[in-house]
Specification:
Layout lengths: L6 E4 L3 H12 L4 E5 L12 E2 L1 H10 L2 H7 L1 E3 L1 E5 L4 E6 L10 E3 L2 H14 L5 E2 L2 E7 L4 E6 L5 E4 L3 E4 L6 H6 L4 E4 L2 E11 L6 E7 L2 E9 L2 E10 L11 H12 L4 E11 L2 E4 L4 E2 L2 E3 L5 E2 L7 H20 L11 H23 L4 H14 L3 H11 L41 E4 L2 H10 L4 E3 L10 E5 L5 E6 L3 H11 L3
Parallel strand pairs: 1-2, 1-12, 2-8, 5-15, 12-21, 23-24
Antiparallel strand pairs: 3-7, 4-7, 5-6, 9-10, 10-11, 13-19, 14-17, 14-18, 15-16, 16-17, 19-22, 20-21, 23-25, 25-26
């Protein structure tokens, strides 16, 4: 007899751990496994952007991340001889107008410790050997550390198991995209001579890009492109001497790395599946999309996949919403994945230009554009993933109208009030109208008290992940009820 659980999560990186924490927060039982024997000890993904911090804030545990990292307030781009552009993050429209620099090892530790505090432990050295969607559940085979196999039968299976995802392979989904025809070097170590240390420093040198990302104190991540590559070719990992030669040549002779923690060569892959779901099986994070590291948005996009999926699964599992709610996950997140892939690719192409004439044009255009506050603001919001929305989602109601404030499909700017356990929409607006919605749909809606004073006449239903699902005037109460009726089970 197969063991039964509600949700089986394969992969205990930042995305799987975020999903597990959110499901547990919403009252859903989970089991999470990972084939690795231990969490990563590498810095890997370094940035938590503003939008991710807002979501962790709404979830109630952003403080642990803030204590474990430090804010970077901007990006400086230079040629090594002159400043091309400075992009400040202080203008980001967020409660967290900065990039929080924290090693992935620290992010995973915080998430895993929080999960353990709720009685859920990651099962290490456990590998998914196969699965079958049985329509009413999923039958999965887990291979244990001792070589034995266990048959489990969760209601739902989510693959958060990275670029080589066993879940994606089991679904037979094509991972469409390409590998960049260039070699890259990565170095994580202590560097002297870089100031200020609360900025990301990018050098558009004529011979290739050199980028510095602060980690803590005098510890930095360095990324540099090493030139063209052919299919299947692998570059040897760089030595410390080679890294210091790059720092001196493309940056400044005063930049010196010592005590390296991690030296590696890599290739950039840009790939994505078309669908993030098939039946009772879902994909999230690198299992569904991998990007150029330009922009540092890969992990954040995956975490936001998890936030998007968690509340929908919770409402369906509790029986408070129709299963059709889950149909919105793939179209919403594939649209975001396409956009992040496109933007990261453009940044990489701009940074790796080899033609001196094109380099000059790039530098001139960047310097000119960065001089306009509106362009600076747009660039900062895009980096921080603050401009993400769901205007074309099946969950976005377009029949209401509001004169000011967030429209349907747009991000809600304020922290969502804490409600009873479990995911709920938050009703903002005239007290009587909001209370009537919560009274008729108590399993779907809570009322926001003391919020939205500037738009008291607008009636909004804000999703548990902080996006407006419905927005209308106080006269649109019937339409708001119809919106909820489409979601409710009865």
């Amino acid at each position: 007899m197969a063991e039964h659980s509600t949700v089986l999560i394969v992969g205990a990186g930042p995305v799987g751990l975020t999903l597990a924490n959110e499901l547990v927060r919403h009252g859903v039982a989970v089991r999470i496994v990972d084939k690795a024997p231990a969490p990563t000890d590498k810095s890997k993904a370094l940035v938590l952007w503003s939008r991710s911090l807002e979501l962790f804030d709404d979830a109630g545990y952003v403080e642990q991340f803030l204590a474990g990292g430090f804010p970077a307030h901007g990006v400086q781009i230079s040629t090594g001889e002159e400043i091309v552009a400075r992009v400040s993050l202080d203008s980001v429209d967020s409660r967290f107008p900065y990039a929080l620099m924290i090693p992935q090892s620290g992010t995973e530790r915080i998430l895993e410790e929080r999960l353990a505090s709720h009685g859920v432990s990651v099962e290490r050295s456990v590998e998914l050997a196969g699965f079958t969607d049985k329509r009413a559940s999923v039958e999965a085979t887990l291979k244990k550390p001792d070589g034995s196999e266990e048959i489990v039968e969760p209601d739902w299976l989510v693959g958060c198991d990275g670029a080589h995802s066993a879940v994606r392979h089991g679904l037979g989904f094509a991972f469409e995209g390409s590998t960049h025809e260039s070699h890259w070097a990565l170095a994580d170590g202590h560097i002297s001579g870089i100031e200020p240390n609360d900025r990301l420093h990018i050098f558009w040198h004529r011979d290739g890009i050199l980028a510095f990302f602060p980690i803590v104190g005098d510890r930095w991540r360095v990324v540099a492109d090493l030139g063209p590559a052919t299919d299947g070719e692998r570059h040897a990992d760089p030595t410390l001497a080679e890294i210091n030669a790059l720092l001196a040549h493309r940056g400044s002779p005063s930049f010196v790395m010592s005590d390296p923690i991690w030296l590696a060569a890599f290739r950039i892959n840009e790939r994505k599946v078309k669908d993030y779901r098939k039946g009772r099986v879902f994909l999230a994070g690198d299992a569904a999309h991998i990007h150029s590291p330009a922009g540092g948005q890969g992990m954040n996009t995956g975490m936001q996949d998890a936030f998007n999926l968690a509340w929908k699964l919770a409402l369906v599992i509790r029986g408070d919403a129709r299963p059709a709610l889950l149909d919105s996950y793939s179209p919403e997140r594939t649209a975001v994945g396409d956009r992040v892939l496109r933007n990261a690719g453009r940044l990489t192409e701009a940074a790796t230009l080899r033609n001196p004439l094109l380099q000059g044009i790039r530098n001139t255009v960047a310097k000119f554009a960065a001089g306009f506050p509106v362009v600076q603001h747009k660039m900062a919001d895009q980096l921080a993933e603050m401009d993400i929305g769901y205007p074309d989602s099946p969950l976005t109601a377009h029949h209401g109208h509001v004169a000011t404030g967030p429209k349907a499909g747009e991000r809600w700017p304020d922290k969502l009030p804490a409600g009873p356990r479990g995911a709920r929409f938050v009703a903002f607006g005239p007290p009587d109208a909001a209370a009537a919605l919560a009274a008729q749909y108590p399993r779907l809606v809570i009322v926001a008290s003391g919020h939205d004073p500037g738009h008291a006449t607008a009636l909004r239903l804000v999703r548990p992940d902080g996006y407006v699902g419905f927005a209308g005037s106080s006269k649109d109460q019937a339409r708001a009820k119809a919106y909820l009726a489409e979601l409710a089970t009865g």
